[in-house]
Amino acid sequence: MTARQPVNPDLARLLDDIGAMMELLGEDSFRASAHTRAARTIRDLPFDLSTLDGEGDSLKPRLLELENIGPKIADKIVEFIGTGKIEEHDRLCKDCPPGLMELLRIPGLGPKTVRSLWQDGGVVNRASLQKIIDDGSILKLPRMGAKSVEKIKASLAFTATEQVRLWLGAALPLGEGIVKVLEKARAAARLSYAGSLRRGKETIGDIDILAAVEKDSPARAAALMEAFRGLPGVSEVLAAGETKSSIRLKSAGELARIGDGRKGRDVSLGAGIQIDLRIVPAASWGAALLYFTGSKEHNVELRERAQKMGLTLNEYGLFPEDDEETPPQARGIRPVAAATEEEVYAALGLAYIPPELREARGEIERFELAGAEAVPAKKKAAKKAATPTGGPRRIGVPGLIELADIKAELHAHTTASDGELSILELAKAAKARGFHTIAVTDHSKSSPIAGGLTVERLKAHIRAVHEADAQIDGITILAGSEVDILADGHLDYDDELLAQLDIVVASPHTATTQDPETATKRLLKAVRHPLVHILGHPTARLINRRPGMSPDIGEIAAAAKEHGVALEINAHWMRLDLRDQHVRAATDAGCLVAINCDVHAEEDFDNLRYGVLTGRRGWLTKEMCVNAWGAGDLRKWLKRRGNRG
Predict the structure, then answer these.
(1) Domain boundary at 383, 413, 447, which?
(2) CB–CB of 91/67 below 8 Å?
(3) 232: CATH
């Protein structure tokens, strides 16, 4: 393999496999988890490791600068970049039946369970697991009761058919629709979706719904479960209990329409998507919502923090640690905090951490209340710290971007290229949403399939935009273009024409399989162009459809900061490009970010919330988002580089 090809996805997979096989073989659990953490770090990097300078021993110091990468794992990374394989992975594969790795991909089968099935039941693949289920011998294995076996059978049946990870843009209306339907049952004191959906991840594997019901209301809990199992589109009830039920949906359209109040998205769900409803005591709502929102890694860090403070944290609350084996809630122990998430975080010495940030990427340290480091509970009173006004000082991320902050759309298309709205129709739709500015950025000439504008057509279009701007009050219409970044980094129009535009959004649309080094050079050339304002959807990926490019976003963000260019979060739920970890690289670099809907039809404005969620996951603040600026500040920024502005 050459270092010019992207290595991160394959390398992360191999490190994950090494960690899993170590657990299956009963090797050191700390080493196993170290490989898993390293895989997660590599998967989240804003650049591909193939773009780093150096090779062999000269590369190792750069790798050691990365979080969760120690000397031994760095050696394996160097080995993989140089040879395309990891010797330890090959060794473990010889000792571990390959069919076990397939079993680990089945929901509910973790390394400990699969190891037991292998060691105690002779299971080496899916077929041998099915055999001991069919003949009943699985029930003789340790910790394998009838309920456990039924869950495994259901998971096997589910994974035998096509699975689908839903786009955020399809899953969020669906989750909202489920909550709205269940609210009509008037049985729950509180209802919310949780899990990765609440954290705003770009794709969703399943949906968790959480409900709070008073302890003395079993009839309400039963009514809620009945309403849940009777939701529109249910194809199968996987489990039906008093506090947890699971269903499979094969149709999302009706619930999505209820969720977003419009047409909804009746997307294909393949074999269906699993929805779980959990009912928790109302007094434990905050702790349960925190627990079931995750992420798993964030929850682990919270539990470790609690332990250092002499406390124990679970889905029922934050309790004093007394070293008893029986859970504290089962013994009637009163929690230190449980009713709200804010209350639990505060008891742990933390400001409230928004769900989108809960990914174990440094948020715990950033949201510590001043002077409230993790200490034993008995010393907590002595460690209170306050500002001169007497309240705790929040560290956190001040001014995290919110939907209401967005006041301009800077990437939109009209009937001049591949849009559905005229210039005035587009402007009126933007004005109705409270925007002070709308940029008309139809495609450039190298995108004929999208109706790209020739030079003469663009000149006429600029005049038409200016005429429309003079006809409407209360909103400014900018004349711009989404200009193709050609494969060599040149732009699709010459500088004389670009200088006549109010705004230039430079985007890649072709050559999306370029190697990381070439893609980085290509995008850097566009960022450094004196007439470019925004780098549009920088990787050109389409979620679930094409991976796009793997440029060094850190290097691009540094150049963008230097030249005053904004990197775009394209808010369409099939793009979300920049992706969340790329936004984090941009915010770490201090460069500007734009959140645009890439409007082609009026309903595309509704995608804004997905872009905002992605921005929040990347720690984007209002001040760093050009779409959140006032009209005057936005205009000054647009004029800075020789365009009309």
Answers:
(1) 383
(2) no
(3) 3.30.460.10
Q: How many domains does the chain have?
A: 5
My answer on whether 430 and 577 are in the same domain is yes
Please enumerate in sequence order all residues whose Cβ is within 8 A of that of 626, keeping only pairs 6 or more positions apart, or say none.
408, 410, 534, 566, 592, 593, 594, 634, 637
DSSP 405: G
From the CB of residue 521, how many other CB atoms can be counted at a distance below 10 Å?
15
pTM for this predicted structure: 0.81
Phi, psi of 395 (to 5 degrees): -90, -90
Q: Is residue 3 part of a domain?
A: no
Residue 586 near residue 618 (C-beta atoms within 8 A):
yes
- Cα→Cα distances 207→71, 204, 237, Å: 39, 7, 15
356 and 417, same domain (yes or no): no
**Contact residues for 58 (Cβ-Cβ < 8 A; gap 6+):** none
Class of residue 379 by CB neighbours under 10 A (exposed 0-12, middle 13-18, buried 19+): exposed
Domain holding 415, by residue range, is 403-641
d(CA 224, CA 226): 5
Same domain, 187 and 261: yes
CA distance 446 to 474: 34
Helices (H), 294-434: 296-308, 341-347, 363-366, 423-432
The 10 Å Cβ neighbour count of residue 635 is 15
Asked if 483 and 521 sit in the same domain, the reply is yes
CATH number at residue 127: 1.10.150.20
The identity of residue 235, as a single letter, is S
pLDDT along the chain (645 residues), means of 10: 67 92 89 89 85 79 89 93 91 90 82 91 92 92 86 75 76 94 93 98 95 90 95 88 90 74 58 89 97 95 96 96 89 95 97 96 89 40 30 61 98 96 98 98 90 96 98 98 97 96 97 93 98 97 90 96 97 96 96 97 96 98 97 94 52
| Same domain membership, residue 477 and residue 441 | yes
